[in-house]
Amino acid sequence: MSKSTLESLPNELLLIIFSYLSSFDLCQAFLYLNNARIQHLLTSIRHSFNFNLWHYDQLHLWLNSNQNHRNRFTNLIDTVVFNDSDASRTLLEYWEKTFNETDQSNVLFPSIKRLVMLQAERCSYILIQAILIPLVFANNTLQYLHLTFKEPASKYPRILSKLIVHRVSVHTMILEVEQGHSYRLNEIEDLHNMQPLSWSNTVQLTLSIQHSSELRLLFEHNALPAIEYLNITIENLDTNLPSNVNISALNVQLSKDSTRNGYWWYSSETFTLALYNSE
Questions:
Q1: What are the residue boundaries of the F-box domain, all occurrences included (predicted)?
Q2: How confident is the model at residue 153 (pLDDT cuts 50, 70, 90)?
Q3: Beta-carbon contacts of residue 160 (< 8 Å; ≥ 6 apart)
Q4: Which pTM does this prediction carry?
């Protein structure tokens, strides 16, 4: 009776086995096998670096492993998910260091297409200038940026303002405020107080704004010239669109989605504003 080995399994079964493993565990187990078929399967599927599945000790061991092995793994990564953890902050600092050492080249994750930052307010000190600016403007491969703000997000407008100032614009941008906004009266900041918006590469955008009057700024000339889909959450909602918003060139669908009321944030209503270019 002949023996069956892992290498003898058909591709379909191998892919099922692979689906139960994280990208890190998968690459640790199979990336260095001398088997061309398994190598081809590994490079044919999407890989992520997800800190919801990592521990600090595991990251520390990986950062101190053979650099060639690290590079073979990170070259496959197309999605990176950070969270509010020591491991996330350690890798963000390491990523910043690689940018500084390589004249702002993204050598750590050269194939990255999607970046997700959970509780982005916790990492705002390093996120924009250290990571996003060189990532977007130096050999850019990033197509999807998703920032979530879990706590009542007084830091949200600061990060939004930095994204606008530095014109950080990719195909899909999601700035998601999970529990509404919270400001002291003298700290309220909205798009009216920021530099003019100019996100030329953004096609799909999810955004939270303070007042309906800010919608006008989203439709200014060259603000969002490539936009096709816009999902807006309006805090302090005035249900009438501003009279000076010119949207005659677009088919606008506006539908009430939900209402939130809470102790730390203003009463608010969420609207989905789907924009489809008529051209």
A1: 3-57
A2: low
A3: 175, 194, 207
A4: 0.79
Where residue 249 falls among pLDDT bands split at 50, 70, 90? very low
Average pLDDT over residues 138-146: 85
Per-domain boundaries in the chain: 9-45, 47-277
